[in-house]
């Protein structure tokens, strides 16, 4: 099973994180990672630790912001929220991504026809 | 922009961000664990799965740090802290490496500084020294000097030089209201000289062309030193009038501090034009000129040749065979071979640096070997290889930076020492350690750092992870050729050290022979001396002068603690004048009269300086101008001219001021006293004349004290100075100190010896150190690689001695080869030194047997640490792990 997992493409993790935060509201790092895993139905090979590099990257660009808070089970954690600039960026990237994937789909299906 | 700012801020908030990250990751894992517990897993499984899902904590942290801050800078700080810790842990390695590199780098920068000054920079403050050519003329008969008439022609006709100047000298007597009269050498210059050198007075004005015109009022420019020492730093010095050779001269300027061209300790006056006839005779001056833009040295030389050929036709009488010789600074002032000599010194220093690098490479290899497990473990735990490389890199950077800093200090100290040791009273060069040397040092330090980093980095890349972790210590292996190469390298270093040791040995023995040479004097440390002169005008008649010197000596005799006192026209060991002598009823023919050293001495001279009477008598108070002429000779003279005969009663005739004086009777023979060329092992023949029969205005006064001389120094000096009005005392010191000062002036053939004997041990010491470290590195590396083998041997019952032999065997071959090569090299190289050696054979058996001994001792020292390491191998540990 492990062998067939997908490697994450450069930049896709950032988009996933923003999308998750947009859909779910404030979340801590584990919550984000968990959510991405669930949505991908364990198709993605994600070392949960790597999410923190993405989080700091997004934060520095001003697309998400963070604040220390307390979780449902009374545990101190850092909660992340998407900002307005982040939403704009997400829309942009989502559109780009959709265009790219439709192009990819066309190219790949044309290749399959030729066989 | 904002991102850059955020990243920079992150670097400064490191500590806080790190702890936040730690907390975040901890809570992450706890969230996950709780989730899995809720899904019904047991505690351990939940925790394990949470960690697996999270992946490598270290790698995540690294990724986070890279994204957060300035990865390079941030990483650098981290790497450096790690490197410091790891170097402190491996103290032996770090100290050895730093000392070795510091020496090599420091030596290099020092040699660069010296060579730069000697070959290019030259005089202090002079600008564009490399564009200056110094010109004299070569004659078919004799090489020196210059025809000043030729200089004037060059100046008018030459197109290659932007400007030409003439430098000569004359001796003058300087008088001033306050300062006592001084005999000085004045440098005479064409008035464009200072502008040409690019150095202008800091006070007053430069010479103007009008100052050079015949009949112009005499003017003088002072050195900064003179202004301070003789004229008390007076602000109103410009315009002050002094008396030079009985004529008033105005001080018009003061040159900047440190400027001393072309000689030390003088003052400058405008050129005095010679008469037409004199300007066609050689004078002891030289010209210098700055090349015009775009003109090469060769062009300038060719042009001067053409002009001189024309002059030869025009003035065949004076200019036959006269050629201009235009030389660079180093060729002119240091010597025609300066470039070769100092160039090879530089090459030698670079070679030493190269060896140091090679040794470092070996040391670093040994270290990587012993750390291969640490490195592999960290890689396996998820630290990236790039990170590892960076860490290895920062360690070498740290070591070389420390070495560079210490090297800078070493370089400055060595250049200072060199400048002090080689300064003569004639040539003062600019040895200030400027930014050029610093840049050079930084440059070589960077190169060294890169070379040193490359080797362990390459090794780290080749680490065989699995092999190392499974317990095979040979994760890093060396091919046979590398091993042979490093053994060869060590052999080469041994040979070099041996050659340098042998050279040092014979030079040091030569110097020892000179220093310890029999001077014919006793108790020189208890003899005070001073050069005393009296004003000519006050003592015109010889009887008046005799009365003065007699009363001075009797005053001195009355001082408590004075054992003996006398005077002479020259100090022992100094180089007095020689005169042709004709020995009557001896073996010399009247026509071929040899030149013989003569000194006039007062009564009691022998006791004062510590010589002995061999036969006859000393000079007495009765030997005065009117009494019959008498003389003393030394043993050497007696043996050479009257071998086997009684010298007392013989007669000889000396020339005086070009005319033959009446003959004198030899009244005694005295012991040989070193005079003239004291570095030789034989004494020159000397004739001593009675001071009283021709009393001079100047004499060296000797006072032998009962106790230590320095306790009497003050009283004797004031007695000399207060003897009469107008009396001057110069060069006041002890006889022993006068030796040291005079040594470099006495025997020109060996003048370079102290310099060589001083530099050679430094090179030999460094070479020895390098060879020892080199051997240590190779043997240590080999022991580390053979840990398992040694463990097995110990387990099988090898004794301590067996193990020791095993380690020493590693060293045997390179040392033996090095010794043989070094010995053969010494035979060849020492022969080149022969001209500098004094009473030592170039193949001196003592030296050639001591040098290998020292080398073997050093080799044993180099093996001691690896032996200890080998003996400490615990067979159980070695076998279980490796």
Structural overview:
The complex is a heterodimer of chains A (115) and B (882). Chain A is an alpha+beta fold. Chain A has helices at residues 12-24, 29-39, 51-61, 84-114; strands at residues 27-28, 64-70, 76-82. Chain A has a single domain, classed as Arc Repressor Mutant, subunit A (Orthogonal Bundle), CATH 1.10.10. In chain A, strand 2 and strand 3 (76-82) form a beta hairpin. The radius of gyration of chain A is 16 Å and the shape is globular. The two termini of chain A are 28 Å apart. Chain B is elongated. Chain B is built from 28 helices and 24 strands. By secondary structure, chain B is of the alpha+beta class. Mean pLDDT of chain B is 81; it is low at 744-748. In chain B, strands 1, 3, 4, 5, 6, 7, 8, 9, 11 and 12 form a ten-stranded mixed beta sheet that branches. A six-stranded mixed β-barrel of chain B has the order 15-16-22-18-21-19. Chain A binds chain B through residues 28-31, 33-34, 47-50, 52-54, 56-57, 60-62, 71, 73, 75-78, and chain B through 2-3, 6-7, 10, 20-21, 23-25, 27-28, 30-32, 34-35, 53-57, 59-61, 63-64, 66-68.
């Amino acid at each position: 099973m492990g062998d067939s997992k997908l490697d994450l493409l450069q930049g896709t993790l950032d988009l996933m994180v923003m999308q998750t935060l947009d859909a779910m509201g404030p979340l801590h790092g584990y919550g984000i990672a968990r959510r991405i895993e669930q949505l991908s139905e364990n198709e993605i090979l994600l070392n949960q630790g790597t999410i923190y590099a993405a989080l700091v990257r997004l934060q520095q660009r001003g697309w998400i912001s963070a604040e220390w808070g307390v979780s449902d089970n009374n545990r101190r954690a850092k909660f992340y929220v998407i900002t307005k600039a982040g939403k704009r960026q997400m829309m942009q990237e989502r559109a780009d991504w959709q265009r790219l994937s439709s192009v990819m789909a066309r190219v790949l299906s044309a290749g399959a026809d030729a066989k | 922009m904002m991102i850059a700012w955020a990243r920079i801020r992150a670097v400064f908030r490191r500590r806080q961000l790190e702890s936040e990250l730690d907390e975040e990751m901890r809570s992450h894992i706890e969230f996950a664990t709780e989730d899995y517990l809720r899904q019904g897993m047991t505690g351990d499984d939940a925790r394990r799965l949470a960690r697996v899902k999270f992946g490598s904590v270290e790698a995540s942290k690294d990724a986070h740090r890279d994204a957060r801050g300035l990865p390079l800078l941030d990483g650098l700080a981290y790497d450096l802290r790690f490197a410091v810790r790891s170097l402190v842990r491996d103290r032996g390695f770090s100290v050895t490496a730093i000392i070795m590199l510091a020496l090599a780098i420091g030596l290099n920068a020092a040699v660069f500084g010296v060579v730069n000054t000697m070959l290019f920079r030259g005089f202090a403050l002079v600008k564009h020294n490399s564009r200056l050519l110094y010109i004299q003329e070569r004659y078919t008969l004799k090489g020196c000097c210059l025809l000043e008439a030729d200089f004037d022609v060059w100046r008018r006709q030459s197109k290659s030089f932007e400007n030409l100047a003439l430098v000569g000298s004359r001796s003058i007597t300087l008088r001033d209201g306050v300062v006592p009269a001084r005999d000085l050498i004045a440098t005479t210059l064409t008035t464009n000289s200072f502008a040409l050198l690019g150095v202008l007075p800091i006070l007053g004005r430069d010479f103007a062309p009008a100052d050079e015109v015949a009949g112009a009022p005499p003017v003088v420019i002072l050195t900064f030193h003179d202004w301070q020492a003789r004229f008390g730093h007076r602000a109103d010095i410009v315009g002050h009038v002094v008396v030079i050779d009985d004529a008033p001269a105005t001080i018009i300027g003061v040159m900047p501090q440190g400027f001393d061209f072309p000689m030390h300790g003088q003052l400058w006056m405008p050129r005095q034009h010679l008469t037409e006839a004199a300007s066609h005779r050689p004078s002891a001056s030289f010209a210098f000129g700055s090349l015009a833009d775009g003109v090469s040295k060769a062009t300038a030389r060719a042009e001067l040749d053409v002009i001189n050929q024309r002059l030869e036709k025009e003035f065949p009488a004076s200019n036959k065979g006269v050629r201009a010789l235009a030389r660079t600074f180093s060729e002119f002032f240091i010597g025609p071979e300066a470039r070769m000599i100092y160039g090879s010194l530089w090459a030698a220093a670079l070679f030493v640096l190269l060896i140091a690098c090679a040794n470092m490479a070996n040391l670093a290899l040994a270290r990587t070997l012993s750390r291969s497990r640490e490195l592999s473990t960290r890689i396996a735990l998820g630290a990236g290889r790039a990170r590892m490389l960076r860490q290895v890199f920062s360690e070498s950077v740290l070591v070389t930076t420390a070495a560079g800093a210490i090297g800078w200090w070493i370089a400055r100290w060595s250049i200072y020492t060199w400048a002090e040791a080689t300064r003569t009273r004639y040539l003062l060069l600019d040895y200030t350690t400027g930014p050029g040397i610093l840049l050079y040092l930084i440059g070589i330090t960077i190169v060294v750092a890169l070379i040193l980093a490359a080797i362990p980095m390459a090794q780290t890349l080749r680490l065989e992870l699995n092999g190392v972790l499974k317990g095979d210590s040979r994760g890093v292996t060396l091919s046979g050729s590398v091993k042979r190469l490093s053994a060869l390298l060590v052999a080469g270093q041994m040979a070099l050290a041996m050659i340098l040791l042998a050279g040092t040995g014979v030079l040091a023995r030569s110097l020892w022979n000179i220093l310890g040479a029999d001077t014919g004097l006793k108790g020189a440390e208890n003899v005070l001396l001073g050069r005393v002169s009296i004003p000519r005008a006050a003592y015109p008649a010889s009887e008046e002068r005799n009365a003065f010197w007699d009363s001075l000596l009797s005053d001195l005799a009355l001082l408590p603690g004075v054992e003996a006192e006398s005077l002479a026209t020259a100090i022992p060991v100094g180089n007095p004048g020689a005169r042709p002598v004709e020995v009557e009823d001896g073996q010399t023919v009247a026509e071929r009269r040899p030149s013989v050293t003569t000194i006039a001495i007062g009564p009691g001279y022998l006791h004062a300086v510590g010589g002995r009477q061999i036969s006859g008598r000393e000079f007495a108070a009765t030997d005065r101008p009117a009494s019959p002429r008498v003389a003393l000779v030394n043993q050497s003279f007696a043996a050479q001219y009257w071998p086997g005969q009684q010298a007392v009663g013989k007669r000889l005739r000396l020339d005086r001021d070009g005319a033959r004086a009446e003959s004198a009777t030899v009244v005694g023979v005295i012991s040989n006293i070193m005079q003239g060329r004291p570095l030789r092992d034989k004494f020159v023949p000397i004739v001593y004349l009675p001071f009283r029969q021709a009393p001079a205005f100047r004499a060296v006064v000797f006072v032998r004290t009962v106790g230590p001389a320095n306790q009497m120094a003050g009283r004797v000096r004031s007695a000399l100075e207060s003897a009469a009005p107008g009396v001057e005392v110069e060069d006041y010191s002890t006889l022993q100190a006068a030796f040291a000062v005079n040594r470099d002036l006495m025997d020109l053939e060996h003048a370079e010896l102290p310099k060589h004997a001083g530099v050679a041990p430094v090179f030999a010491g460094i070479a020895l150190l390098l060879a020892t470290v080199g051997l240590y590195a190779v043997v240590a590396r080999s022991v580390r690689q053979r840990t398992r083998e040694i463990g097995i041997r110990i387990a099988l019952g090898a004794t301590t001695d067996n193990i020791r032999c095993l380690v020493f065997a590693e060293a045997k071959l390179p040392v033996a080869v090095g010794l043989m090569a070094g010995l053969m090299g010494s035979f060849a190289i020492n022969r080149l030194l022969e001209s500098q050696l004094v009473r030592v054979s170039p193949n001196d058996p003592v030296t050639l047997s001591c040098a290998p001994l020292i080398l073997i001792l050093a080799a044993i020292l180099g093996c001691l640490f690896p032996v200890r390491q080998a003996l400490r191998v615990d067979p159980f540990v070695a076998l279980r792990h490796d």
